[in-house]
Amino acid sequence: MAIKKLDVVTQVCPFPLIEAKAALAEMASGDELVIEFDCTQATEAIPQWAAEEGHAITDYQQIGDASVEYHRSKSLTQH
Question: Which residues are catalytic?
Fold first, then answer.
């Protein structure tokens, strides 16, 4: 299992979600994507998209006042 870190702090929506989709498309099943962002809309959009796609959010951390970090595992059923 590989871990990829994606730092999209300072990017406004929808760019954190677009970057997350692109990163996951290049990853193997079971790999983990760590996304750090500070866009408030992404706080809802990223977990919603992950659930729709069948990806599990394995960890969530609030970092400071505005920054958030999600750990997500790519679904084993995704190709």
Answer: 13
